[in-house]
Design brief:
The chain is mainly alpha-helical and 146 residues long. It has a two-stranded antiparallel ribbon with strand order 1-2. It has 6 helices and 4 strands, in the order ββαααααββα. Helices cover 42% and strands 7% of the residues.
């Protein structure tokens, strides 16, 4: 099991530098892409794409004019971002090389939707780990296409 997207597994993180080109805009990371997709406003998307760091892009995404269908499409948007990110052959090879290990976006910032927080203070149950599950699904697709 891989329980943190850090060190040798930092490439699994949405913060990992991996340019994504979508609808005429290049996003430096999947985090930039995901946050920008929260809005339909092209200027807000471009501003997020230009953010100097993924953490800043994340903060900016909290203040956009949220598209009305966001809650319905956010998992599909994350899936698309991951698919675009892992069109990079080197990254795809690294993902495939994780074998059959479970991928858990372990964290301490209480994200129990996309990952699983391992703080003992308030997060006593495993998170949904949607990011980890999407990565495992994508890994299987990539394996089948090799």
């Amino acid at each position: 099991m891989i329980v943190e997207f850090d060190g040798n597994y930092a490439f699994l993180s949405n913060f990992y530098p991996s340019p994504i080109y979508h609808e005429g805009i290049t996003y430096p990371t999947n985090e930039h892409f995901f946050q920008a997709m929260k809005t339909l406003d092209i200027d807000e998307r471009k501003a997020i794409a230009a953010a100097e760091a993924p953490g800043l892009a994340k903060r900016m995404g909290r203040n956009v004019k949220l598209r009305p269908d966001w809650e319905k499409i956010k998992v599909d948007v994350m899936r698309l971002g991951l698919m675009l990110k892992f069109t990079d052959a080197a990254l795809a090879e690294k993902l495939i090389a994780t074998g059959n290990k479970m991928l858990v976006e372990g964290n301490w910032w209480h994200d129990n939707t996309w990952g699983s927080c391992y703080c003992e203070k308030c997060c006593t149950h495993p998170g949904r780990n949607l990011l980890g599950h999407l990565l495992v699904d994508l890994r299987e697709e990539l394996k089948n296409n090799v």
